[in-house]
Amino acid sequence: MPSLAAERTVDAMTTTTKIQPRALVRASGGPRYAVALAVDALGTGLLRPFLLLYGMTVLRLSASATGIAMTVGAVVGLVCMPAVGRWLDRGARSTVVAASMLVRVLGVALLLAAPTGHVWLFATAALFLGIGNQAWPAAHAALVATVAHGRERDAALAGGRALRNAGLGAGALLATACLAGGTTALQVLAAVTGLAYLAAAALAWSVHVHAHPAAAAAAAKDRDDEPAPRMRALLAANVIYVFCLNLFEIALPLVLVTQMHASPVWSAAIFVANTVLVVTLQVPVTVLMSRFPRRSVLAIAGVVLTVSYLGFLAATSLGHGWGAPAVATVSVVCTIGEIIYAGSATALVTALAPAHLLGRALARFQLSTGFGLAASPAVITALASHGPVALWGSLAAATLLSASAVATEKDR
Known about the structure:
disordered N terminus; transmembrane transporter activity
């Protein structure tokens, strides 16, 4: 637990733009936990962007079979969330984080053991990877909420996201450099990923963070049995908000390459710029916005995202010469909206939920996130087939409606 001096330091941090790295690391779970997050993210970056390629080149599966197996694994992985929520509400914290990493070790082991052409073993591996990927965000948020409180918790969650994005980016770059080795390189990357998950799990478990649900439940009883927040509007809106997380991997490459006939270099440059901006601005922007209520900040994120979608619509009408630079410029606005959203959404859930029901609230939130991420590729590609107005106009309207629902929902 952070000392009183550290808490005061971080409290001061949340009211100014000055950021104290040591206080931020302490509020995020401590140095060992920060190393665990970095190692886990690095390992994930080595394999996750190339999992489709692994199925197609190493296991000789068809593109459709590989894609379906990955989608089914991610969606079915959401089934574990109610159990994860109940486990967290019994007080487990670092144990659940470590378990989410160990499950992915099993997934990687199945990948390495799968014989050529064996789609069911690949699908099982994708399922275990999906379970770990779905369980980790809720477990991490619960751990941070146990260690830190108030606005220091918001900054700590933002710091974790920035660190994770840095690790994912570094892992992806390293993997890209190794891909010249062909199928052998992919197998080596998978093995290294498994070792990284194992090391990260050991580090996370060694932190030994545990909550005390009995005391929290007793405190809630003193407050007339405070119920869990319904958050219906927030959860429904979150399904739409999370579309912004897939834009840089799906929507923008689709629009730039297939509709605007721009060089793929533009898509790559925009994706790299998005990663760099998230890593460098996630904590400062979250701290800057901490002077406003979290619900208002989340609504502002929806407005910024809506403006960016309308900007993309305008940019696609400029033609081949100016279209790609305009899309790149608007993508900066979209990234700012993503940063504001990511810095406020989970923080709002942790602030709304009673301590003894935090796990179930975070599990429900992750269900909405996972569903939105799973549905967005199909929705985006379907809308894009009907033209820019259908794609960007629909996203803008849905996001603005979601922002309105978030802003008007009443907290109990």
